[in-house]
């Protein structure tokens, strides 16, 4: 579970500052993605990419658009903490 530990360590400083409740929720969403990616076979954040996020969106189609948007914002923070240069893929909305 090195991936989960890596996300916990990266997000520890993020949770300490700012709005505590929101940042704890964001951290939980980051850990949900990390657990999903670990189940998919990723061992570190360097192996996590857009394909993992897209598969995560497919697996969470049952969530509301607002919830998925909140997850995406957490993933953007995780990408920033990792030093990745791009943003993670956005989820498709159920509204046309």
Strand residue content = under 5%
Shape: globular
Instruction: Count every beta strand, where a strand is a DSSP E run of 2 or more residues.
Output: 0
Helical content class: 55-70%
Rg calc: 13 Å
Count of alpha and pi helical runs: 4
Low-confidence stretches: none
Biggest sheet overview: none
- Quote the distance from N terminus to C terminus: 39 Å
Given helix and strand content, the structural type is mainly alpha
Mean of all residue-level pLDDT scores: 92
In N-to-C order, the SSE pattern is: HHHH
Walkthrough of the structure:
The chain is built from 4 helices and no strands. It is mainly α and 96 residues long. The longest helix has 21 residues, at 20-40. α1 runs antiparallel to α2 and α2 packs across α4 (65-82). It starts with a helix and ends in a 14-residue tail after the last helix.
Which key phrases capture this entry?
96 residues, 67% helix, 4 helices, mainly alpha
Which helices and strands, and how do they pair?
Layout: H1 2-16, H2 20-40, H3 50-59, H4 65-82
The gist of it:
This protein is mainly α and 96 residues long. It is 67% helix and 0% strand.
């Amino acid at each position: 579970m090195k991936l989960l530990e890596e996300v916990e360590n990266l997000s520890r400083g993020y949770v300490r500052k700012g709005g505590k409740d929101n940042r704890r929720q964001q951290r939980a969403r980051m850990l949900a993605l990390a657990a999903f990616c670990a189940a998919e076979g990723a061992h570190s954040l360097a192996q996590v990419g857009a394909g993992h996020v897209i598969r995560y969106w497919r697996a969470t189609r049952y969530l509301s658009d607002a919830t998925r948007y909140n997850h995406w914002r957490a993933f953007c923070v995780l990408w920033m903490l990792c030093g990745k240069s791009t943003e993670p893929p956005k989820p498709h909305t159920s509204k046309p």
